[in-house]
């Protein structure tokens, strides 16, 4: 209890000190406006983040605390209890208000950027039909309710009664859109993110948000005209559709290239974040130029940034931290400041607010419930859907703030909408938790979740970017083929680094049919054509050629952030079971996982001809062998490939009890690795061989089983020279089949 009191004091003391400072400065009109601005920001962050922390501890979203902070600091409480201090902190002068509102308006764009980054279009595609039905039904019903309510509101609640149509459209939109951020937080906390109903809730909220910002963009154009000009509205709709079409075609590739260019070229700190902010601002300006609101441009920019394959977790966390720690408490706090709940002492306004909350809840709940029923969901699933979709939170506050700034909504109507957003957001988490707790897990759902959990632990699933270092040899061409198969499995971007004697010449030939780049693309297309869910589009292939030494070239590229270096050179094995000097040189500057390719037999004669393999995977239960199994399964997805998992049992195990225990452990390892192949329907066989020499057992298995590719996972050994242990060295030197060595 004392510890909790101490933590609370940490938040209270700054507020008291700052408030006392205001009391002393209340009569001083000479204070610089910058002082007041900084004071406003500090107070909003302190109180907002403090209340947000408290809300999260009691199971509520932090945005509720940030809204309550604004209400406490605004006329609803602080301005009512201490009017002079409130007037000193938040002067009514237009110049002073413009400073904090300018920051808040930029905060809106950043919040929409963050919302877009959290938008998973792949999830929408996977559960599309049910999510679309739920979203449309959940939008149409409350939208009509809100629109009709706007038509019967008294003129006193509208700043411009003659523009009732626009106000009604704003009100309908505010009542119909769910807050994907709030919904996602609660569903994630409940560990339902991957459950069927959880995915549909998130996907429907994503569609809600997307449709909502398109509607707001059109309404903004309508409000700007002041009258219902069909030609202007038609131009706004056409401009919006063209903007979306260009953004998700040309814009997607352009955004990815800009982010990659900043990451690979610029050496200044946080260069990628700078490019992302410039991209957001540019797209916001474009939407403003075509006559729709800037929020649509920021939201679409966020979607494109979130889909960028090389957006590292560190960059994502930095940008997210900036938005959540500064702009969110300032914007939502200011929204709370603009809401004056003291107006609810008027019985008529209180009754209208209760009616607004009731219509919003019943409309959204009923629409989502009907949509779920039409989508073939059970009653309990529909109840969970309806409960989750009823949270308004941040989205409605942003919409209401836009309406207030445009003069479409009055101060009283804005306060009513903020009240509705807070109440529905507070009610959603306990309702959703109660609904989800009643949902039993079906057998097919359990099987899918186990498969996905297994996959998330895999090596391939966590790769974001590949670096392929090759010379002009046939072995390099085979390495390019394997790299393309791995990249195509998940649409991973890949950089081809030419390190041979004719590197610059090979770079110029990148568009030719026989080039390494063509081999990568052709192999990736095999995976795409085979139809796994992850292979949604063609991979991006970049070419590099360095005049520097190979080791220096690798060091230059490695700083850009690659998860796996694949090496294909003419000579791999050197003297005394070691690696060739070129391999030693190339790998010396790369600290991450390595994939070293040795082509033999038919793979040397036709390196890029085969899309199917007979693969042998030695397994031992170690992390390295598990990584090798994961890579083998990814390669096997290219075609009718067979995979054989081999466990070598050491014959030095003595005693009957020891042998039985060892056999059970070996069988468990094989079952575990076999399940990797089974989840994709890949033919897999298992075998246990007893031998005092694992390398000899592996080599005999290669000869007897007729495999043509060995995928061997091995840990790098601490040594002056590159080494992966005696087993790996022996297999690399003596195997008659091609070898792909995967290291930790």
Helix content: 55-70%
Strand % is 5-15%
Give the number of helices.
Answer: 30
In whole angstroms, how far apart are the ends? 47 Å
Oligomer: single chain
**Strand ordering within the main sheet:** 3-2-1-4-5-10-9-6-7-8
Shape: elongated
Report the CATH C-level class of one domain.
Mainly Alpha
Biggest sheet character: 10 strands, mixed
How does this model look, in words?
There is one protein chain. The chain is α/β, with parallel strands linked by helices and 744 residues long. Among the domains are: 93-248 and 310-436, Na+/H+ antiporter like fold, CATH 1.20.1530; 612-744, Rossmann fold (3-Layer(aba) Sandwich), CATH 3.40.50.620. The chain has helices at residues 2-25, 33-57, 62-73, 78-81, 83-89, 94-117, 121-126, 128-152, 164-176, 180-189, 196-225, 230-265, 271-289, 294-306, 313-338, 347-374, 379-389, 393-405, 411-436, 443-456, 474-488, 503-508, 516-530, 550-558, 581-587, 602-605, 623-636, 656-678, 694-705, 726-734, and strands at 466-470, 494-498, 541-545, 564-568, 594-598, 614-619, 642-649, 683-690, 709-714, 738-743. It has a ten-stranded mixed β-sheet, with helices on both faces.
Compact overview of the structure:
The protein has 744 residues and is of the alpha/beta class.
Question: What's the SSE blueprint?
Answer:
Elements: H1 2-25, H2 33-57, H3 62-73, H4 78-81, H5 83-89, H6 94-117, H7 121-126, H8 128-152, H9 164-176, H10 180-189, H11 196-225, H12 230-265, H13 271-289, H14 294-306, H15 313-338, H16 347-374, H17 379-389, H18 393-405, H19 411-436, H20 443-456, E1 466-470, H21 474-488, E2 494-498, H22 503-508, H23 516-530, E3 541-545, H24 550-558, E4 564-568, H25 581-587, E5 594-598, H26 602-605, E6 614-619, H27 623-636, E7 642-649, H28 656-678, E8 683-690, H29 694-705, E9 709-714, H30 726-734, E10 738-743
Parallel strand pairs: 1-2, 1-4, 2-3, 4-5, 6-7, 6-9, 7-8, 9-10
Antiparallel strand pairs: 5-10
Helix pairs in contact: 1-2, 1-5, 2-3, 2-15, 3-15, 6-14, 6-15, 8-9, 8-11, 8-16, 9-11, 9-18, 10-11, 11-12, 11-14, 11-17, 12-13, 12-14, 13-14, 16-17, 16-19, 17-19, 18-19, 21-23, 24-25, 29-30
